[in-house]
Specification:
The chain is an all-beta fold. 0% of the residues lie in helices and 52% in strands. The protein starts with a strand and ends with a strand.
C-alpha cells in the first residue's frame, strides 16, 4: 500500500527556516510526481510546488517562489520541503501528495495526485 507521512512541522519565528519531510512507503517513489500543498483556516488549499522524482522540472507557486525548495533523497525515499524566510502568512497545515506512475508532472490543476499524507502543522510567529 502506498502511504505518505509528513513530519517536521512546528513553531518557528518569522524569518526562520524549517524543513518538512514526506516519507513514502509501500513502494519506491521512483517515476512519480510529488507535490506540497498547504491550507490555512478559512482559506483554499494552495499548491506550493510540484516535482517529478526523475527529471529536473519543478513548478513553484508564486507565493513561495524563491523561498521554498523541494528536495528528495532517493535512498531514504523521502521528499523534503525546505522553507526559508518564513512569515506568519505561511502558517498552515502542510500536506504532501504523490501521483501514480507518470513520466512527468503537469500543472497543479492537471496532475492527478491520489495519494496524500495526514499533514503537519506549521505555525509562524511574528
Amino acid at each position: 500500500q502506498v502511504k505518505l507521512a509528513e513530519s517536521g512541522g512546528g513553531s518557528v519565528q518569522a524569518g526562520g527556516s524549517l524543513r518538512l519531510s514526506c516519507r513514502f512507503t509501500g513502494v519506491h517513489f521512483n517515476r512519480r510526481c510529488f507535490g506540497w500543498f498547504r491550507q490555512a483556516p478559512g482559506k483554499e488549499r494552495e499548491g506550493l510546488v510540484l516535482k517529478h522524482i526523475n527529471n529536473r522540472d519543478t513548478n513553484y507557486g508564486d507565493s513561495v517562489k524563491g523561498r521554498f525548495a523541494i528536495l528528495h533523497d532517493v535512498y531514504e525515499n523521502v521528499v523534503y520541503l525546505q522553507m526559508n524566510r518564513l512569515n506568519p502568512d505561511d502558517t498552515a497545515m502542510y500536506y504532501c501528495a504523490a501521483s501514480k506512475l507518470e513520466p512527468g508532472c503537469a500543472g497543479f490543476g492537471q496532475t492527478e495526485l491520489p495519494y496524500w499524507g495526514q499533514g503537519t502543522q506549521v505555525t509562524i510567529s511574528a
